[in-house]
Structure formats: structure tokens, C-alpha cells
Amino acid sequence: MYHPRHWIPSVAPIFVVASLFPPSMAAQATYTAELRGTVTDASGALVPGATVTATNDETKVLQTRKTDEAGRYLFNALPPASYTIRVEASGFKTLVRPNVVLRVSFQTDLDFSLELGQVTQTVEVMGAAPLVNTVSAALGTEVTNRYITEMPLLDRQITGLAFLAPGVTSVAGSGVGTLGGTNFASNGQRNGTAEFRFDGVLATLPEGGEGGNTFLSYKPSVEDIQEFKLQNNSFSAEYGSNGGTVVNIVTKSGANQFHGSGFYFFRRPALDANDFFANRSGEPKGAYAHDQYGGSLGGPIRKQKTFFFFDLEKVRDTSPGTFTTTVPTALQRTGNFSQTYTYDDEGNPVLQQIFNPCPITVNPAPPCSLSPVLDPSSGEVTDYNRQAFAGNVIPPSMIDPIAQKTISLFPMPTGPGDPVTGYNNFSKKLVYASPTYRLDGRIDQNFSERSRLTGRFSMHRETDDVPDPFLAAYKNVFKTRQIALEHSWTPSPSLLWTNRISFIRYFNPTLYSSPVDPLTLGWPSILILNPWYEKKAFPDIGFSNYQGLVTDLCCTTSVEADNQWMFASLVNKVIRSHNFKLGGERRIYFNNFFQPGDTSGGFDFGPDITAQSVFNAADFQGNDLASFLLGWADDGGVGAVPAVANKSMETSFFGQDEWKVSQRLTLNLGLRYEWSTPYTERYNHNQFSCFSCDSGIMVPALGPDWPGKEIFGTSILASSKQRHANPDYSNLAPRLGFAYRLNDKTVVRGGAGIYYGMNYATNWQYGGQAWNKNINIIFSKDGNITQYSTLENPFPVGFVGPQQGRYGPLTLWGYANGNHNSLEFRNGTIYQWNFGIERQVSPSTLIEVNYSANRSTHLPWNFKPLLRGNRNYISVADRQKWGSSGLAELVPNPFQYLFTQVPGMPVPIFNEPDSIYNDSTIPRRDLLRPFPQFPGVFGGLPFFAATGSYNSLQVRFERRTSHGLSFTGNYTFSKFISTSDEGANAWIGKLQGGAPQDLNNLAAEKSISGNDTPHRLAFAVIYELPFGRGRLLGRNMNRGLDAVIGGWRVTTFTTLQTGQPIDVRTSSNHVTDGSQRPNLTGHPCSGASVDAVVDGNAKYFNISAFSKPADQVDGSAPRYFSDCRVPGIHNLDFGIAKQFRISERMYVDARGEFFNFLNTPRFNYPGTSFGSGSFGTISSQVNGSRGGQIGFRFVF
Predict the structure, then answer these.
(1) CA-CA distance, 835 to 1036, in Å (whole number)?
(2) 520: enclosing H helix or E strand
């Protein structure tokens, strides 16, 4: 499918350009460390020509450099590890410095002073490992292997440790600090914009989207990770195409000695506390079983040459539970509702009376009529009343035969249910299972000191087995494969050329198969034998007050398959005091999906069809099941959706110079150029809009609402080379920074740069609207006065599928326009800057204080009407002139003659029976739009006009292990202002709040951001208790006693975070094509305490401070309230471990780990919908209650 001929031409320029550089150039790998310094003699004179050797303590692989005429040396691509540095020069003693620990992407200076003497004489220098980054202006946080393997991690996922970095916050609507996912906000950027890299290659897929979750293609085992670093301000020009945050993860490799691990961790309800609200209502804890086990092995294939590392992990998640719902009783299945009761408006039990809607299911239909309700003043008909069924029983002759057979598929009740309504009369024990497998394999081949090759294969497979109590279960499968290769070549000491290639395959099928052939029940073949779907699927039958026949992802098999290639070439040349870096990268995305929807029809049945009043149904009248038995749904539709195969690319080139101006000052000078080529679609299933094109159609005048005019706005059918949007070629990103070394322990740094956000048009699925369609099943054309279609005959005038290209330039007339046109757009632009100081305050401790800020412009505003220029929304003047009722009023349809034959008019152009333009009348609002041939507002790409600004004071502190104690953490004080927080894929519900009210006054949307978090403190501590053999207390303790009281360790992860601000919206929107907030009439933030709110005795904020705005008038409330905030995070994760040492290189860890150890609930957002019953009320917690985990880990 993806033959090399398709992608080789796309990536060849990257390697051709790289190959043009002279063989005196070299490159820095993105995740490797950099060690540089100066060699002098005892008097301070420079020593040129000295030999400096760095030897990896585990693999014994060495690299060698010669100092230049200024005594300088530079290792620019050392894999993160512990090294021994050896310095030799004629006439001087050999100097050896062991235990120099270099972390991922760490850059530092290490100077050496030689003593006069013979080379055969050796001087060993002992000192603390360098802690301060003396080279780079970038802000970053390293997380070492000890925190990765010893901290309590939910599901043993390392991504929760990202919160140890300053500026990283838990986003609105998320739980506690140690999240298992990757949904965080960093340094004032939108959630989900971080880029994850494993061993220098991309591990995130684009579809997760800016403003959604970072789509991390797979989450590796803890046993596979060596360490990682998060960078989120002023990083090198080597990085880009993201929202300003890069997480570099380094996997483990083999060594000269065999090493590995085996582990088993488990969680059970007995270790947990109950949910706050479940506990208050007396509900028991849920049952589940979580088991996680596996192991790793690494070692030499050929010592000092070839190494391997392999890990395997399995997770077994089973959640048995009782499924409780409501199913039809034996009487109801026969149409007898004489025993079906409900509550009236006063809360009194009453018979749920059903009325005859006069269905046309039975032919000939029995005599039936509706009684008109007249306005006493005007005599006009305002409503119709239906006649009650005698005895509340539907006559057997009136029951739809399809519905009668289908309702028998429901199981019989297992109990009486509610004593009045009979609800919840069915229960069944089900087991949800989610087995997961992870596997990684890595080979490192050192051909020579100058040539190194690394290859890695990673696999992740997760299967969600979801049972269904009625028909068939389904499987949701997630499979990821990644292959990565890296080759580094050092033809001379000043040269390194690194090439990388990686491939990710993400495959997500949802497998569903019904055991019942719906054709045998009488369902019509026009539904079941859908030409857009090969298999027979069962119709999706839903009810307002009863369980649908299929409980979950009904009813068809769907699939998503994403492929991503990444090619990169990085070159580096050291010339005197300059360390030049040059490189390029190309990413190619193949996004394939088939999500057919309800291919055999989807139906929603409600009680209104069998209520007495046609237009004003009482809540206690009518019944969903009765409507179903009569074959009359509220609405329905059939999906006609093709497979989609999209392709997009991102390309970048960069140049970077680390200029060591003096012994103290280093400048970072960089320039990056990047561009994206948005999606093309392999099958040309797409169309674009030309709103300046004349259609050539003059629609004549009709009535007072349509004076007649020539229609502009046509469609252009796509070719395989036509993209969803034009590429943005303006993304030039300069970077400037400095690091000034006041002394060996203190560095002042600062930097600024331009970055470009994740490209909207390469991280969103598109399906050409003309090629996919939900074909409406219209059960009534007059507001349910009379029935139009039936279950047996859902399309009385025929089945018309997607338009495809049969109407040429007039494609999509009569339907809302998705507007997937080649509009000009630009990527979000992010201006970042920082200034700070880093100080090593002791041999093991450092503190760093920084001012970090950014300003973002041209961010996507994911409110579909906001298309530049052509939004198709109704003007404010027209909205306020007509009001909601006037805009909805039906007026004569001047377009009808184009869709159906009208006497005296030409032959219709369109055959689209489900378009509203077939009717003689349409809502007035559609005639008031700039392009009235397209009812509704436009969809497609958003408006790129959102802005954001972020300012923060960030303090980072770290103590490497000393006297058994190590810790790392940060405090951030910040303010985040924005005009919108929704991104391209706005999957976080609380960030969708406050869509713009006035589309012509977007500046009024400026407020505190929904992700604003003024204060955040997060820190992790590892403390080895000072008892036992070799420790402070009991240094010479006997082994028997040490086995009991020695080897204990405690770990904590503490998170304190201010809550995010609250937004308030109206429960019913009365601004056409926009959003409406309530009026602010008082101070809303004077609510009660959280305790009073969750006890049900008070509201969280002052709900009387709001009032309802007038129809089509904007409310005065801001988008978010700065001083009205949800409860914050107060979380402590705690672990205690006992180490049983078997030998010097072998031990067993036994652990108890507890998440949310103090069982502090983080309460969810209160109801923020003005006018709803839950307004101001808190009814759930967003974090988990205390959860326990027991684990054993064997290490050798």
C-alpha cells in the first residue's frame, strides 16, 4: 500500500542537502549529552593537543577528542550514562575523573588542570557530578531513572512525572497530578500540544490534535526507560512543529554485563477507599482486578561492540460489575401499558397514559383522527390532541410487525424494579476485560569508535472486551508498532553526521458482529443491504427512557489505521569556538479511516409521539416503547460513508550555532524554517468552495422575504493533489539565547524565540462532505401531526446517497456546507522568552529561578462559523430584528423549483428528497444568510485569530542522592490570559466553555484562560531510612537483623495546585449562530464552602448574581471568572518499600504504593449552566479516591 516510490521522492531532499556539506561537519543527536571544557596546566596556561577520552562505564565504549589550539575539547553526542574522563598530554600526569553522570540532552562544561609529570603517572580526581547546564538557554527538567523506577506511578506510566517540570499543569477537568495520560498544559500553551520523542524519533501522532490529548502512539514499560527530559522554553532550533514543549525519552541499552529485572504489581479494591459521593450514598466499592507483570534483559552479544536490550510487559484488567437497566415487561411487549406508571408534575404516581398518533403502519389503517386546539382569541389552530387508547392498550392490529419481532430480542426482566415506574428491572453480571501487551527490543552496534548503529522495535497491543447484555459484545483493539534506526558517523573528531528513520503503524479496529440477521425480523433490505457497507449490521435502536437494544458502539465494524514516517539528518561541525549544527526532518502522515456510523439505520424513540398533545407533550404522558411498537420514531437516519485515505507532510530545516564567546559566555544562535503540506485524499473524495464564483443561477423573487438575486458560491471538486488548505510558507523561526557562567556553580541564562503551533490541517481527519452523508429518515413532515415514513418503508420517495460529484459546481446545494476549501491560513505563532539564574548550592543540590513567558497569536478558534470572510452567519441586525421566533418562522421557499417540480418552472436540477429545499416553505433564517443555497453555518477549518499570553515565575529545585535523600520539584506562579482555549480537537469539555457571543466582536472574549493556574507546587522525594547495614544507624548490623529493619525506603509525590476558573453559560441559547452567556447582576464568587456544597445544603457560587439576557442579545458575563474557581488539587502519593539484597548486583524490592494517600477528593466543576437545576451544585469528584498497589521487583 505504501510503496517506497511514494515516499522516497519526498524524503530524498533531506538526505541530499545533508550530503552536500563537506566531510568536516557533524551533528548532535537530539537526546544525547554534550560535554565540553578547557584543559590547562597548573599555571592556567592552555594545553593544546591533549587527548581527552570519555569511556561509558557500563559498555566500556569510548570516544576520544584532541584539544585545539585554545585547549578546548567537545563531546557533542554522548549517550546519557555515567562516564570516566581521562586526560593525557605529553609532559603531564594523566588525569582521571570517574563518575561523570551525563543526563539526557544535558550540556555542561568540565575543565581540567594538569600537573607536570610523566604520562605514566595517574592522578584520580574525585568530585560531584556536574549539575548546572552551562551551555544552553533552554529551560528543561530531567527525570532520572531512579524516579522512574521507584516513584509510585499509577499503571506504572512515566508520563505522570512530566508534572515535575515547572510550568506544567493539570488541565481543566482532569484529575490529580500523577496522571496516566499525556493531557497536560505546559507554559501557557494549550493542552495536548507537547511532542514526545523516543531516542530522538517522533512517538506522537498528529490526530490527537492541538487542544486535545497528545496522541502518544504507545506508552512504554517503566523497565524500558532510562530517563527523560522535558523542555518548554527557548529550546534549540532543532525542535519545532509543536506548541512549545518537547519531551525527550531515552530507552535502555545493553551493557558489558548482563542485567535485567522482573516485576509483578497488582491492585485490588481491598486496598482502596470508596468514592466520596458513593460512600455518602451507601454504595459499595466497585470490583476489579489489575495485574501488571513482566521483565527485562540486557547484555552483550559481543562485548564493547554489540549489545541488546529486551523488555516485555502484560497488563490484565478485569472489572466485573452488575449492569442494571430497564427492559420491556411481558405486558408492554404486547402493547399493554395498563400497568405502566410514572410521576406527574407534583410528584404523585399516575398511570403513564398513551394516546393514538394515527400511525400508517397498518394498511388499511383503522379510523383515527386528531382534535384541533383553537386559540380562543384568534380562532387559529395552535395544537392537536390525540385520542387515548382504550384501557391504555394498543390494539394488536396496530402494532408494527417489525417492532413486534424486534422487541422480543430484549431479555425478560430479572426483578420488579422501581415500585412505581418499574425502572431498573433488569440486572446482569458482566465482566469488562482490557488485556494489554508491551514489548521493546533494542540493538546497539558499535562498528568502531566512529560508527554506531542503533535499532529499536516497540509494540503495544490493547484490547477492550466490552460485553453486551442483549446482543453481541464488541472488541476495541489498539495496536501500535514502531521501528526506528539511527546511525551516527564521526569521520573526524570535529564531525558527526546522524541519520534517523522511523515508522509508526497505529491500527484501531472496532469489531462488532450481531448474532441476529435483521432481515429475518422484517427490516427492509433498503436499510440492511447498505451499498456503502459490506456486512449486514443491526439497526441502532435507542430510547429516551429505556435501554437501547445495543448498549454501546453500535452497530458496525470500523477502523482507523495511521502510518507515520519520519526521516531526519543532522550534521555538526566544530570550528574553534563554534559548534555548528545543521539538519532537516520530514514527517509523512497517512491517516486512513472507515467510520461508517449507522449503516443499517439509527432510530430514536421518545414518548412525545404517544402523548396527548402534538406540540406541547406533558412529561408524564406517552411512552418510548409504545412509540416503538407503533413504528414511529422521533428521528432516524442511515450512514453512507466511504473509506478515507489522507496524506500530509511536515518539513523543516534548521541551523544552530553554539558560540563559546569566552570561558564564561556561550551564545545560542538558531534559525529554523518549517512548513506543512495539508491533507490530500487518495480517492479524491473531497471538494472545496469558491464563494466568489458566480453559479449562473438567478433565483426569482418570491414573497416579501426574497427579492430575487443571482447566487454566488460554488464547489470545486478536488484532485489528488489538491489540499484541504494552502500550505503556510511563512514559518521562519529565529532563536537567540545565552548562558553566562558567573562561576563553576552559577549560571545566568536567557533566551527568546519564535515557535509555530501544531498544524491544524495535518492533525485532523477530513472526509469530503459530498462523499459522505447521513440520510435522514423523515417520520413526519408536519411536526408529528401525520406520519410520513415507517420502519418497513423508511424512504417513501426513494433512497438517495451522497451527491459525490454529479452536480459539478453546484455540489452541496441544499445542505449545510462543510466548507473544506483552500482558504489561506497560518499556523499559530508563539513568541517565547525567559531569563533566570541556576545555582549549585551544595555538591548535590541546585536551585533555579526563572521568569518564563510567551505570547501566542493566530491560534485556531474551533468555532465552526468563524471562517475568515465567508461565515454564512446571520447579521446582528437581522438577528435582533426578527428574534428567535421570527428567524424560525416558515416562509415561502424560492429554491424549491430547483429541487422538485413546480408548475410553470423549469425541470429541477437536483434529486435530493431529504433536503429541506424540497418543501414549499423553509425557515426565514436560511434566506437571511449570505449564501442561502447552503442552510446553516459553515463547518470545516476554524478561524485562526485566538490569542494567549502567559507570564510566570518558576522555581526548580533538585537534590541528587546524598545521605539517602533525594528530591526534585518546582513551584510556579503564573497568569494565563486568552481569547479561546478550544483547539483543533477540543476533546476537553470544560475548555469548550464560552464560545463567542458576538462574532463581530471577538476582542470581547478576552478573559482569564480556562487553564489558568496561579499557583502550583509539585515535588517528589525519595528517602532511604537511615537504619540497617551500611547506613547511619546500624552500620555493622548483622544480616539477620538487617533483613528486618534495614533497607527501608519511603517515596512521596506531592501536588498542590490552584483550581481553574469557572465559566457560566445559559442552558438555552437564544443567539442564533452564536453562544450566549447570562447577564451579570451581582458578585458571583460569594458562594458557600465546599463542604456545605457537597452536603447539598448550599450552592458553590452565588447563583442569584445572574439573570437571563434578552432574546438575541449578548450576556454581560465574562468568558471565565478569575476569582470563581473550582476546588484545587491537594494530592499526596505515598510509597514504602523494603529492599532485600541477595548479592552486590542482585536484590528484590517489595513495595506498597498509595495514590491520593490522604484520600482528599478533588471535587468536579459545579453545574455551570444557568437555568438548569444543577446550577451551582457539585455532584462528583474528578480524581480517584485512595488507591493501593502492591508490587515486587527483582533486579540483577
Answers:
(1) 49
(2) none
Residue 1047 contacts residue 1140 (beta carbons within 8 Å): yes
% of the chain at pLDDT higher than 70: 90
Question: Tell me, what amino acid is at 582?
Answer: L
pLDDT tens digits, one per residue of 70-110: 999 999 889 999 999 999 999 899 999 999 999 988 888 89
If you average pLDDT over residues 976-991, what whole number do you get? 68
Of 258-262, 374-378, 548-552, 640-644, which has the strongest mean pLDDT?
A: 258-262
Strand 168-170, strand 139-143: pairing: unpaired
How high is the mean pLDDT of the chain? 86
DSSP characters over 624-676: HHHHHHTT--SEEEEEE---EEEEEEEEEEEEEEEEE-SSSEEEEEEEEEEEE
What CA–CA distance (Å, rounded) separates 78 from 382? 81
Query: Alpha-carbon distance 1165 to 702, whole Å?
Result: 51
Centroid of chain to Cα 193: 9
CA distance 108 to 246: 20
End-to-end CA distance of the chain: 44
Can you tell me the distance from the alpha carbon of 991 to that of 989, in angstroms, rounded to the nearest whole number?
5
The model's pLDDT over 28-45, given as tens digits with 9 standing for 90+, comes to 346 888 999 999 998 889
Per the model's pLDDT, the better-predicted residue between 331 and 703 turns out to be 331
Per residue in 553-578, pLDDT (tens digit) is 456 778 889 899 999 999 999 999 99
51 φ/ψ angles, rounded to the nearest 5 degrees:
-95, 125
User: Cell for 614?
Assistant: 402534538
For the cut 90, the answer to whether the pLDDT of residue 608 exceeds it is yes
| Cα separation values, 1126 from 92, 738, 828, 1060, 1061, Å | 66, 40, 29, 6, 6
Q: How far apart are CA 861 and CA 106, in angstroms?
A: 37
Is residue 1013 within 8 A of residue 976, CB to CB? The reply is yes
CA dist 327 and 414 (Å) reads: 9
User: Secondary structure of 4-33 in the HEC alphabet?
Assistant: HHHHHHHHHHHHHHHHCCCCCCCCCCCCCE
Region 699-707 average pLDDT: 92
Residue 983 has pLDDT above 70, yes or no: no
Phi first, then psi: give them for residue 881, nearest 5 degrees.
-70, -45
Residues 6+ apart with CB under 8 A from 409: 470, 471, 516, 549
| Residue 272 CA: distances (Å) to CA of 54, 86, 180, 276, 1157 | 49, 53, 18, 12, 10
Of all residues in the chain, the percent with pLDDT exceeding 90 is: 49
| CA–CA separation, 320 and 324 (whole Å) | 13
The count of other CB atoms within 10 Å of the CB of residue 256 is 16
Q: What is the mean pLDDT of residues 464-480?
A: 83
Rounded to whole angstroms, what are the CA distances from 60 to 98, 280, 655, 924? Answer: 13, 61, 33, 80
Output b/e per residue, 1116-1130; b: 16+ Cβ within 10 A: ebbbbbbebbbbbbb
- Characterize 562-599 residue by residue with b for buried, 16 or more Cβ atoms within 10 angstroms of its Cβ, and e for exposed: bbbbbbbbbbbbbeebebbbbbbbbbbbbbbbbbbbbb
In angstroms, rounded to a whole number, what is the distance separating the alpha carbons of residues 177 and 1183?
Answer: 9
Decide if 826 contacts 902 (C-beta within 8 A): no
CB atoms near residue 675 (< 10 Å): 19
| Helix (H) / strand (E) containing 96 | strand 94-102
Grid coordinates representing 856 are 501566542
The answer, yes or no, to whether residue 1066 has pLDDT greater than 90, is no
C-alpha cell at 1066: 445559559
Could you tell me the CATH superfamily of domain 31-131? Carboxypeptidase-like, regulatory domain (2.60.40.1120)
CB-CB neighbours of 853 under 10 Å? 21
- Give the pLDDT score at 868: 40
